[in-house]
């Protein structure tokens, strides 16, 4: 079974091999686009960074808040605090 790291490394290796092949090629089409091909890794890195930032921002802005879970958690904290006080452990309240 292939891990995600191996999948990414395989894809990166294939893309790198194709890019190296295009740089060393003497095809007229490649010679016409030679400068663009040289900067292709930098362009791809920029586009990947833009994609990653967009995904992170989207997921932050659409993060669900669950008010009922927050209320339930506060109740459980109060129950635990009362239980500890009944056992003789006094906690200072920090709100």
UniProtKB/TrEMBL annotation:
<keyword id="KW-0472">Membrane</keyword>
<feature type="signal peptide">
    <location>
        <begin position="1"/>
        <end position="17"/>
    </location>
</feature>
<dbReference type="Pfam" id="PF08285">
    <property type="entry name" value="DPM3"/>
</dbReference>
<comment type="function">
    <text>Stabilizer subunit of the dolichol-phosphate mannose (DPM) synthase complex; tethers catalytic subunit to the ER.</text>
</comment>
<comment type="pathway">
    <text>Protein modification; protein glycosylation.</text>
</comment>
<comment type="subunit">
    <text>Component of the dolichol-phosphate mannose (DPM) synthase complex.</text>
</comment>
<keyword id="KW-1133">Transmembrane helix</keyword>
<comment type="similarity">
    <text>Belongs to the DPM3 family.</text>
</comment>
<protein>
    <recommendedName>
        <fullName>Dolichol-phosphate mannosyltransferase subunit 3</fullName>
    </recommendedName>
</protein>
<keyword id="KW-0256">Endoplasmic reticulum</keyword>
<dbReference type="GO" id="GO:0005789">
    <property type="term" value="C:endoplasmic reticulum membrane"/>
</dbReference>
<keyword id="KW-0812">Transmembrane</keyword>
<feature type="transmembrane region" description="Helical">
    <location>
        <begin position="38"/>
        <end position="58"/>
    </location>
</feature>
<keyword id="KW-0732">Signal</keyword>
<dbReference type="InterPro" id="IPR013174">
    <property type="entry name" value="DPM3"/>
</dbReference>
<dbReference type="GO" id="GO:0006506">
    <property type="term" value="P:GPI anchor biosynthetic process"/>
</dbReference>
<dbReference type="GO" id="GO:0033185">
    <property type="term" value="C:dolichol-phosphate-mannose synthase complex"/>
</dbReference>
